[in-house]
Amino acid sequence: MAHHHDHERGHGPHHGHTDIDWAEMGPTLEASAELFASLYERALGWLAQEVTEPGLIVDAGSGPGVVSCLFAETFPGARIVAVDGSDGLLERARARAERLGVADRFGTITGELPDVLSELDYPADLLWASRSLHHLGDQRGALAAFAQRLAPGGTLALMEGGLPLRFLPRDFGIGRPGLQARIDAVEAEWFTRMRTELPGHVAETENWPALLAAAGLKHTRTHSFLLDLPAPASDRARAYVVASLSHMRDKLAEGLDAEDLATVDRLLDPDDEASLHHRPDVFVLEAHTVHTAVRPA
Question: Is residue 231 part of a domain?
């Protein structure tokens, strides 16, 4: 269940578009991103090996700003601009920056990607887009627009893809074994429908390095980062799993059989001892992939 849920804006867990009140989702999005902080920190450390002393870092699709603030900590000389379509989420980002003492070099811009990036005062040395691109109908066009906002020698970092969330053993004692693989298949179909219904949708092969190169960028790199939180799950990890499956529940009704749906409902029922709320075997295992490329100097 991972390709398509976003802790930040665009990783609560699963999202549609017009039917989501992003500001209302703020606490869930923030908690999910905090759970993944160690993964993001490793990703930012990897970026820092090649992106040295950036002046401006743009978080395109920042959500409540958890990663934006991690950028502020990782790059203490940089100015950070969080960009998102939800001012409610950006309010949370500004409050977080204030709490962490980085508000003096932290700004926000409200608007829809990619056009809102024209409001930047100067080009970015690093533009980070974490699972925001797949919300845009024309991904190739959006990448070209992202690339245009980079300073010469600037880096575009794209977090897309990875491996789906796993949170229980293949056979966890209720229902038919292999439930999560069947959920993956339903979500993949849902994601395809979501993409095709986006305004201005353009079908695109998800070869991210090739798309970055097509945007005129060079030196593509790819690295995946694993979040491995073994059982027994912490309260925060357990809450993330419950939220992830809960947000999938309506979509699952279209693709799972009655037995699997009954199993899902048991997993979500806080009064059931076999549920995710009580089981000792709940874990979190998930991977995110980051692709980078550089604007020629």
Answer: yes
